[in-house]
Amino acid sequence: MARRMLIAGNWKMNGLRQSLVFFEEICSIAGSRSDVDVLLAPPATLIFSAAEIAGPVKIGGQDCHNHPSGAHTGDISAEMLRDAGASCVIVGHSERRADHGESSDLVRSKAEAAQAAGLIPVICVGESESERRAGKAEAVVGAQLDQSLPENTAYVIAYEPVWAIGTGLTASIEDIAAMHAFIRSNLPDGPNTQILYGGSVKPDNAADILSLTDVDGALVGGASLKAADFTAIIAAAP
Ligand code: PGA
Hints:
This protein is an alpha/beta fold and about 240 residues long.
């Protein structure tokens, strides 16, 4: 079966209740592209309200704890996300790995916790600028995959070169194609696993990136905060 396209928006620490007006516009575009899955990961405070009006748009969390419950002040469990209406959760985003010192082992246990709660984890991997310059991009991403992936292959991978996130820089089309092919060849269920590209995806580069054979969608940060840009990226899916 052909892999479906998935366009995912990561709002990061942005969005108040008034931002929910975007959803109507995004939902109408998502509804007109029944061949494309659309996922939005708003901040946790908006998940419940977003899920109530999301229609065909899937709602995701941006992180979850690796334990189901307990004395973890300020954290959110996968079951809580599910209870609020999420069906997916991003784990191992480079901002979590960098700002919170999250290791790939922790990312794997978060992915397992997500699956146990009935969520699909979107597992992020990607090399830093110095690692790419040193010719180590594949080695770094290969090691992240080895350590971050749970046994159960019900997950989505997002390849996000760290230096391309929020910088306006994107990897070259050739580098994206090569890395996605490398990732697919290293996955236990490669032919059936969706692999998203992330890092400064915008309306003007989306069509080229999304047309690559091994790119099954995009994880979009900044451009998912503007309804016109995000809907243009959805429309650019082949
Ligand atoms: P960006 O973020 O599109 O703003 O580069 C992507 C991401 O961090 O998922």
